[in-house]
Amino acid sequence: MDNKTAGSGELLKYFGLGTGIILIISSIIGSGVYKKVASMAVLAESPEIILLAWVLAGLVTLLGVLSLAEIAMLMPESGGSFVYLKEIYGEKFGYAYGWASFSCIQSASTAAISYVFAQSLNAIFPLPILGGQWETMEVLGIFTPFANIGVKLTAVGLIILLSAVNYTGVRKGGGLSNIITIIVVISLFSIIFMGLTMSGGSFHNLTSDSITYPPAKMGENYGFMKLIFGTMLASFWAYEGWINIGFVGDEIKNPQRNIPRILIFGILIIMGIYLLVNMTYLYVMPIDEMIAVANTPNSVAAVEVIRKFGGVAGAFAISVLIVITTAGCTNSTILTSARIYYAMAKKGLFFKSAAYVHPKYKVPTKSLIIFAVWSCILVFSGTFDQLTDMLVFAQFIFYALVIAGVFVLRKRLPNAERSYKVIGYPVVPALFILFCIGLVVNTLIEQPREAGIGLFLIATGIPFYYYFKKNNFVVKD
Fold first, then answer.
1. Of 180, 181, 174, which Cα lies nearest the Cα of 252?
2. Residue 79: its pLDDT value, please?
3. The CATH number of the domain covering residues in 3-471
4. Which residue among 1, 5, 326, 443 is buried most deeply as judged by most CB within 10 Å?
C-alpha cells in the first residue's frame, strides 16, 4: 500500500498508568451494573447466590487478567487479541478473532450499550415511535427495524457523535472517557452511601431467599453448578471489556510496566464497585421485589431501587447517570475496538483503508468509520438480547485460546525477558481455561440458539479471509 493510502505518522503515546486504569474502567462499566441484578434474581432467587456470582465472575476475570498481563507485556502492540492469537497460533487464528470482534463481539457490544443509552434517555424525554404496523413489521422474518425508531435513531446518533469525537484525536476521545468515568465512579459511590444510610433498607434482605426458592433447576443433575454458571453468565456482561486494554498497546506509555498494573488494578477496583453496588440494591429491595422488577417491561433495576427511597427525583437522577455511563462506555468501546481493524489491515487481513492513520490527528480514522457503520447497522437489527448472550459465548472461546498462549509462549520463548510473570503459574491460567471450557459447553447445552448464532457469525469470516489474502498486501511501517 502506498503512503497516501496508509497515511503518515505513528499512533500517539497517550495512556499512562492513571489514564489506562480509567480507560479499562470506562470500557467495562456500562449497562450491566444497573440492569443485570434483576435478571440474576429471576435465575437465582437468592441474594446470596447473586452476590456470590458477582464475586466469582470477578475472580474468574482476575484469573484471566493476571494471565493476560504476561502476554500483553511480551506483545505491547495495538490490536490486542488479534495480535496475540496471530503470533501464538498463526494468522488464521488472529484473523478469526478479529473478524468475530467485527461481526459480533465489539460491534454488537457498541450497538447494545448505545441502545441502553437511548432507552435511558427515553425515560427522561420520551422519544417518538412510528406506532401501528410499523412496530411489528418484519424484514426477512427476523428483524423489526422500525420498532422503537426514536430509540434506535438516538442510539445511531450517539455512535456517530462519539466516532466523530474520536476521529479528531485520541486526546479528545481519551479525555472524554476520563471525565465521564470520574463522574460515574463518584455517582456509584453516592448510590452506595445513600442506599446504605438513607433508604430504610435492611441487612435481613441480603440473607432472605425468594418465597419460590429453590429454583426448578436446582432439582436437575448438577443443578447448583448450572445455576451458578447461568447467573455468572449474566454478570459477565458487566465485566466485558477487560481485554480491551491490549487494543491500544501502541498508545500506552512504558507498556511493559504499565499494562500489567492497568489490568490488575482496574479489575480489582471494578470488582469492589460491583459487589458494593449490588449489595446496596439487595439491601434496599427484597429479592421478590427485584424479581418483580425483572418481569416489568422496560424497567431498570437501579432506577427502581432509587425510586423506592428517592422518589421521582431520584429516579430521574439515576436515569441521567445511566445515560452518562453508557455514553462513556460506548465511547471507550469505539476508541479501543477500531484499533483491531487497524492492526488487521496493516497485516493485509482487513479492508485496506482501515490501515490509514490520519496525518494530523494520529488516529486510524477510516477504521473508526468502518466500525461505526457496522455498529449502526446492528442497532437496526433488533437482536440486541440475542447478540448480548451470543457475544459472551463467542468471547470466551477466544479468551481460552489467548490465555492458553501463556503455556505456548513459555515453551516457545523460555528465555524471553519478562518484566511480569503470571502469579500462581501454572494453576491460575489453567483454572481460567477450564472455566472457559465449562461456560462454552454449558451455553451450547443450555442456550444452543445463541451459541449457534455466534458460531455462524464467526464462520462468515472464512470467505472474507480468502478475499483479503487475494486482494490485500501488508502495510509497511
1. 174
2. 62
3. 1.20.1740.10
4. 326
For residue 324, the model assigns a pLDDT of 81
Residue 368's CB is within 10 A of a number of other CB atoms, namely: 25
| Integer Cα distance of 376 and 159 in angstroms | 7
Tell me: cis bond preceding 426? Omega within 30 of 0 counts. yes
Lowest mean pLDDT among 219-233, 248-262, 263-277: 248-262
Distances (CA, A) of 119 to 211, 254, 402: 31, 40, 35
Q: What is the mean pLDDT of the chain?
A: 82
Q: What is the pLDDT of residues 264-303, one digit of tens each?
A: 888 888 999 999 999 999 999 999 999 999 887 667 888 8
pLDDT at 256: 64
Domain chopping of the chain, boundaries: 3-471
Q: How far, in whole angstroms, is CA 11 from its chain's centroid? A: 24
Listed residue (132, 112, 110) closest to 383, CA to CA: 112
Question: Which set of grid coordinates corresponds to residue 60?
Answer: 474468574
| Most trustworthy range by pLDDT among 99-103, 332-336, 351-355 | 99-103
Whole-number Å distance between alpha carbons of 147 and 144: 6
What's the CA gap between 1 and 294, in Å, rounded? 53
For the record, the C-alpha cell of 131 comes out as 406506532
Helix 170-198 to helix 149-167 angle (10° resolution) is 130
Quote the pLDDT of residue 140: 67
pTM for the whole structure: 0.78
Task: Look at 35-49, 331-345, 424-438 and tell me which has the smallest mean pLDDT.
Answer: 331-345
Q: What dihedral do alpha carbons 65, 70, 73, 75 form, nearest 10°?
A: -100
- How remote is the C-alpha of 189 from its chain's centroid? 21
Q: Minimal CA–CA distance to 180: which of 310, 394, 27, 358?
A: 27
Q: Cα separation of 399 and 340, whole Å?
A: 16
Structure confidence at residue 8 (pLDDT)? 43
Q: Which helix (H) or strand (E) holds 331?
A: helix 301-346
Closest CA to 98 of 385, 448, 346, 361: 346
Please state the φ and ψ torsions of residue 169, each to the nearest 5 degrees.
Answer: 135, 145
**Do residues 264 and 58 touch, judged by C-beta distance below 8 A?**
no
